[in-house]
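Something for you to look into today, if you have time. Could you write out one complete protein record for me, on any chain you like? The space below this message is yours for that.
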Amino acid sequence: MFCDRFVSVTRIAFVIVTVVFVVLAGRELSASIRTASISIVAERIERGETVADDVVTKYALRSVDVVDGHYCRSDIVAAGVTLVLAQLDRQNVNVNYDAWAVAASSARQYLRYALSCMPTNSNFWLRLAAVQSTIAEEPVAIAGMMKRSVVLAPYDQVMVLTRFYFWNDFTDATLTAAKRALDSDLTTMLKLGDRCRVNATIKEISPQLRPIFDQTWTSVGEAATARFRQRCSK
C-alpha cells in the first residue's frame, strides 16, 4: 500500500512538472511568434542590408510589444535595441525635432527596460550613455553608465574600440567625470589592442579627448606604442 502511495505521488509530481514545462514552452513559442518580425528586420539591419526608413519606423514602434509582454529573452530584447537605435540614427534633429525627440525618448526608455533584463550587458550601458548624451549631456549620469560598461567588459576589444567612438564625442565635463574608466579603456587599447584596428580607430581624435589621449600615450611608454608606427596592410 505504501508503494502504491509512493507511485501516486510520483505520478502527480511528474504531471505537475510536465504541465509547468508545457506552459513555459508555450510562452516561449508565443514570444517567438509575436516578435518574429522584429527579429527578422533587426537581423537585416545588423547584416548591413538596406532597410527602408518606414520599415524601421514600423518595427521600432512594435518594440513596445517586447516591453508590454515582459519578454526578457536576450535575443528578443537585443533585436528591439537594434531597431530603436536604428530609428534614432535615422532622425535629423535639425530637420524634424519632434520626430527626433520621440525616437530619442523611446530609445532611452527601451534601453532602460533592456538593462532591467540584462544589467550585466556592457553594450546596453554604453548605448544608454550615448542616447542620454544626445538628449542632454548629464556628465555624472553618463559617466556612471560608461563606468559600468567598462567594468563589465574591460578587455573586450570590440567594446573598447566601440567605446572610444563615444569617448571621442563626449564633452570635457563627461570625460573628467569618467576619467578613471576612460584611462582604463585607453590604456587597454594601447597596450593590448590590435595595432591596425587601433590605428584606424584613433585616426581622428577630438580636441577635448586629445590631451587625455596624449597623456595616456606617454604613460604607457615607448615599448607599448612603438608598434603603432608600423604600417598596416590595406
